[in-house]
Amino acid sequence: MAIIYKIVTRSQWAEAEKKGRFDGAPVDHADGFIHLSAADQVRETAAKHFGGMSDLLLVGLEADKLGGALKWEVSRGGALFPHLYSTLDPAMVEWVMDLPLGPDGKHVFPEEL
After folding, report:
1. What is the pLDDT of residues 19-30, one digit of tens each?
2. Given its phi and psi angles, is residue 44 left (phi above 0), alpha (psi -120 to 50 degrees) or beta?
3. Contact in structure between 43 and 77 (CB atoms under 8 Å)
């Protein structure tokens, strides 16, 4: 079971739960897909795109459940990143947890990640 990740603001996820779907963040709308990260990419994604931001959530998804809408495409540094070409049903999510800032200003990820 490969888990992939989406970093969202608490308000974005609250809206998704209210609507029954996550349509993506503004950057996702601009690019035409929902940006996701693999386990070995998510820390760099947090630092690069969410540096210093608080009130974030880390959403864990089982890649296999996303079907053909999930594409692994070349992105940052030539690495393959998961991109979702559909909306995301919050019911398909494995878990959602806080992604707090540590005293050093970096996001604190779960140890098992």
Report:
1. 999 999 999 999
2. alpha
3. no
Q: Which CATH superfamily is domain 3-98 in?
A: Protein of unknown function DUF952 (3.20.170.20)
User: What token pair was written down for 70?
Assistant: 């999930």
Give the SS3 label for residue 51. coil
**Band of pLDDT at residue 113, cut at 50, 70 and 90:** confident
Give the count of beta carbons closer than 10 Å to the beta carbon of residue 109. 17
37: its two tokens: 């990260």
Rounded to 10 degrees, the C-alpha dihedral 111/62/94/101 comes to 40
21: number of Cβ within 10 Å? 15
Task: Give the mean pLDDT of 56-72.
Answer: 96
